[in-house]
Design goal:
By secondary structure, the protein is of the alpha+beta class. It has one domain. Helices cover 21% and strands 31% of the residues. The protein contains 2 helices and 4 strands; from the N terminus they run ββββαα.
Amino acid sequence: MVFSVPLDWSYGNQIFQIEKIVGWDGKDIKVQTDNFSVKIIPVTGTYTKDDEEYFRLLPSLSPETRKRNGYQ
């Protein structure tokens, strides 16, 4: 997944949790994922081991995911 990262975030692992309000049994309730981490890497600079891992995993993504992220 590619998304914009605020400039004040540090590179490295960041912990996230996604929350969403959904209708259930006539009520709005908040559902959330378990915590997960995302490693923030710079888009400029020298080629690193992290870049290599990204490109290694790219072919395993579904065609739809690759297309949404700009890879045909």
